[in-house]
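ok posting inputs for the fe (iii) ion job
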Amino acid sequence: MNGSREQRGGGGSPRRGGDQGHPHAPITDAGEPPAARRARALEELLVEKGVVSREDVRAHVDWLVSRTPADGARLVARAWVDPAFKTRLLADARAAALELGLDPGPSPIVAAVENTDEVHHMVVCTLCSCYPRALLGPPPAWYKSLAYRSRAVSDPRGVLREFGLELAEGVELRVLDSTADLRYLVLPRRPAGCEAMSEEELAGLVTRDSMIGVAEPLAPVHARG
Ligand code: FE
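and the output
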């Protein structure tokens, strides 16, 4: 490996690690956003004071990045096929997640809200990026952007249109602002034409964006154009 890198580097004395000839600039901390620097400084301090250990931090980060929207999709699919479960999900999403053996995470309250023919919910965190990470995985970059956080409130229908979702006239749009203590999971409308599908197949139609309320679930393959 090193040998070939050094060859590509051409002249100059080959160094250990073979970084000669890399087509990009070395990665440094130079462009680090202030928030990242602050978070790192806080971590250093908390470790130094013995409040958390580095292992705690690493284990939590590992847990966070291991989460995926597939868990949320299982909740939605079960709610679509089991009305009693849907009632329990809407009453207490944490308990419903535990019932399916899913990890609802440390967030005190996860509220599931149901989209219907009359009401459409879309979720935002206007302050930062609060999100039901345990059930949906890390939030998408756009969810954390200032543009989404502000425009989801000032022009929610316009934002939905940009996501390709045109709400029918007369549908009430409710924008839900998440907090650290209260996070939302949207239960999207079940697509037409999937009556014969199994719960597992239904889960495959449930996208991350449909559980944030900026998209509808996928249509069943045979019903797609
Ligand atoms: Fe937040």
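notes: DSSP finds twelve helices and four strands in the chain. Residues 67-223 form a domain with the Nitrile Hydratase; Chain A fold (CATH 3.90.330.10).
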